[in-house]
C-alpha cells in the first residue's frame, strides 16, 4: 500500500491544532473510568469524537483507536495490526486538565505495519506542536528541527541527567512500591556511578509532567535525558514514539535499572512499559554540564 506520510502528517498536525482550541474550554463534568484516579471529562469525549469524524471523512479506509472509544467498550479489538491505524488521545494529561495544570496535549499518532510512523502532539497552553513522520525528521511548530538542545548525553549517564517518569493510574500497593523502587534504584545508580568517579554526581533532577506524550516530546527536544513509565497505553505513546525516533532518540521496552533486560530498539506498540533516551548530540560544549 502506498501511503503519503507527509500528507498524513500535515493533516494530523492541522487536526491536533484545531482540537487544541477545544481543550481551552473548561469542562465541568468529570467521571471516573477504571478507578477514582482514571478520569475522563466531557471535553475528552467531545474532542475524540471531533477527531474521529475528521479522520473518517479524510481517510475512511483507515482504522481508529481512541482512548475514550476504547474505554467506552465500543471497540472489539484494540491490538494494533498491520493496517493503517490512527491512535488518538484527545487529552493526554486529563488529571492535569481537571486540576488546571497546563501540561496537557492532544496526541494523534498513526501506525502502519504495527509501527508508529506519524505523530502530532499539540499542547495548547504551551503553544507548541511537536510532530514527525518516518523519514521526515521531528519538528516543533513546523519550523524548529529536533533535538534543539546542544548538550551531549554525559558519558556516565545517568549522572547529570534529568530523569522523567510517570506514576500511571494503578494505586494498588504492589505496582506502586515497584515503581518507587525503580525510581529509587535509578537515582541510587546515578549517585553510585558519580561516587565511583570521584565526582559526587547525581541526577540533576527528576520530573513527572503527568502526560506521557509530553514527556516523550521533551525527550525529543533533549530537555529530558531519560523517561520511563510502566503503565502506558498505545494512545499515550504512539505519536511520541515516532517524534523521539525521528529526533534521533531511542525508545525501548527495558527497565532502566535492570541491566539483565536487553533493550529492544525501534520498538513497536503494545507494551505497557517504555524507556526513552534522548538523542545524543555531540557538540563542542561537551563538558559544560560536568560541573
Ligand atoms: C495518562 C498520562 C499519565 C500516565 C498515564 C496515562 P491520560 O494519560 O499520560 O502521565 O501516567 O499512564 O494514562 O489518561 O491523561 O490520557
TrEMBL record:
Its cofactor is Mg(2+). GO terms for molecular function: inositol monophosphate 1-phosphatase activity; metal ion binding. PROSITE patterns: IMP_1, IMP_2. Pfam families: Inositol_P. It catalyses: a myo-inositol phosphate + H2O = myo-inositol + phosphate. It comes from the Eukaryota. This is Inositol-1-monophosphatase. The lineage of its organism: Eukaryota, Fungi, Dikarya, Ascomycota, Saccharomycotina.
Amino acid at each position: 500500500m502506498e501511503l503519503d506520510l507527509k500528507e498524513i502528517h500535515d493533516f494530523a498536525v492541522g487536526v491536533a491544532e484545531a482540537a487544541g482550541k477545544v481543550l481551552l474550554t473548561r469542562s465541568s463534568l468529570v467521571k471516573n473510568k477504571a478507578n477514582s484516579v482514571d478520569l475522563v471529562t466531557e471535553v475528552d469525549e467531545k474532542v475524540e469524537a471531533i477527531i474521529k469524524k475528521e479522520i473518517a471523512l479524510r481517510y475512511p479506509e483507515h482504522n481508529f483507536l481512541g482512548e475514550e472509544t476504547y474505554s467506552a467498550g465500543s471497540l472489539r479489538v484494540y491490538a494494533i495490526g498491520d493496517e493503517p491505524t490512527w491512535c488518538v488521545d484527545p487529552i493526554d494529561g486529563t488529571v492535569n486538565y481537571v486540576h488546571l495544570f497546563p501540561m496537557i496535549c492532544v496526541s494523534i499518532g498513526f501506525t502502519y505495519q504495527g509501527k508508529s510512523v506519524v505523530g502530532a502532539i499539540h499542547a495548547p497552553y504551551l503553544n507548541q506542536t511537536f510532530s514527525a513522520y518516518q523519514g521526515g525528521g521531528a519538528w516543533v511548530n513546523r519550523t524548529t528541527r529536533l533535538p534543539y538542545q546542544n548538550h551531549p548525553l554525559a558519558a556516565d549517564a545517568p549522572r547529570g541527567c534529568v530523569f522523567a517518569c510517570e506514576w500511571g493510574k494503578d494505586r494498588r500497593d504492589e505496582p506502586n512500591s515497584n515503581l518507587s523502587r525503580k525510581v529509587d534504584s535509578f537515582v541510587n545508580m546515578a549517585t553510585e556511578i558519580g561516587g565511583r568517579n570521584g565526582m559526587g554526581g547525581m541526577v540533576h533532577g527528576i520530573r513527572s509532567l503527568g502526560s506521557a506524550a509530553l514527556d516523550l516530546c521533551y525527550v525529543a527536544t533533549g530537555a529530558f535525558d531519560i523517561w520511563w513509565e510502566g503503565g502506558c497505553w498505545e494512545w499515550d505513546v504512539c505519536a511520541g514514539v515516532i517524534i523521539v525516533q525521528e529526533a534521533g532518540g531511542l525508545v525501548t521496552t527495558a527497565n532502566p535499572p535492570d541491566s539483565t533486560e536487553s533493550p529492544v530498539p525501534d520498538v513497536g506498540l503494545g507494551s505497557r512499559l517504555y524507556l526513552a533516551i534522548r538523542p545524543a548530540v555531540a557538540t563542542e560544549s561537551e563538558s559544560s554540564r560536568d560541573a
